[in-house]
Predict the structure.
Amino acid sequence: MGVATCTQIASGSCNSPLGLHPLQKQPANTAKACTSQPASLTCSKRDSETFLNEDQIKELATGLELIGLPFILVLNFPSNLSAKAELERALTKGFLERVKNRGVVHTGWFQQQLALKHSSLGCYVCHGGFSSVIEALINECQLVLLPFKGDQFFNSKLIANDLKAGVEVNRGDEGGFFHKEDIIDAIKTIMMEDNKEQGKQTRESHMQWSMFLSNQEIQNKFITDMVAQLKSMA
């Protein structure tokens, strides 16, 4: 796992004036993947500052392959490396050929909000960043949490253990590594075993929090109350 600097992340945009970039369109390969049946697609994405090592890419990709569901796997690499070369090195031999009819591996910028709103997306495997978690909760896709650093671990525990609105991927005690079986178990819980107790409870809790976060009246009241408290402190 590595960490990217702000310069690396913004390197493709820092030479142009703010606001002059065209709107990003959804890549053709991800658009094709989104033609799946409603709520059948799994999307796995990390934050732009975190890079999986070769072993973890293999485990994640193999887990998505073996579970048998259509998927989009979003992988990013440091800007000084060739994404194509890294994919060829990290993915198991023949992976892209085996999954070509139901899987997409994407590198580079990804329209997360567009994907989360799409009716085909049924499960979002994310790092547990606060913004990503909220965006997933207000949409209908179920959450599988795979944290890597900082507050991502706290957010994942909150969502999976306290709110019961998602499932966290199990990790080994030694080094915190995960394996393909852990990926499969987490996704199956909410995508293929939704009639069992944990899957059913997770879906019900997710729906309740989605309704709460999407209720504009409640959110406006929070803002009004906060402004009133700030004024009282002045």
